[in-house]
Amino acid sequence: MLEVTFTQLQGWLVAFFWPFIRLGAFLVAAPLLGHTSIPNRVKIGLAALLTLVVAPGLPAPPDIPMMSWAGLGIVVEQMLIGLAMGLTMHILFAVVTAAGEYIGLQMGLGFATFFAPDTGANTMVLSRLLHMISLLLFLAFDGHLMVIEILAGTFVILPVGISGLNTNAFELLARFASTIFVSGLLLALPLVSALLIINLSLGILNRASPQLTVFSIGFPLTMLVGLVLLMVMMTDLGRFMQRLFGQGMAFLQQLVQTMVPL
Which of 89, 105, 208, 236 is deepest in the core (most CB within 10 A)? Predict the structure, then answer.
């Protein structure tokens, strides 16, 4: 008859529970798997499945009871690691959303907004479209598999019970948020520059010929030119996103390395 002692049961629970917290926190914060349209049961089940796959190859967990203050500190530590990695992925996808905001405002689509349940705020239609395309490209590039591989590798670099995290990693994460504005502006710069030139030309034309109703032709012209340039930009969007995702994966590894306590 198979007998399981309390010590063995506690060891199995500890080996499963703390990796589950880190993986679950990442899945909650990740932009794709953490979407509000995905039920919480699916997220918990996926986190448990990933934990069952990853846990057998992990280093031995510390001999600390789960129901203790030290165990609570390890839970918070695992949550911080998972949330930081999930926030990094949110920053990557926010680049495309910011570019859509810049382009939409310049095209005159500032009024074309709708409520996005995942962000809880009004989002421009163009930003939402680019965000969905970036999610599909992320899946096409197997980005989700690479992120899971990096996340599984964090248990070697940052084993459970590492006794503290380097706070410089969170400062590095805050500085990485500038990528939203820098890369977003670089993506939108060709369209914004062309539409700005058109608006300046229409302004000069209105001063030279006041009887010409520039306002009646300005909006359709900027809309038409913006759509044409947007079609041209789509041909190079895949290469831009591939470079952006590569930058994000490199930063994830750098972030994990920086979290190692001094």
Answer: 89
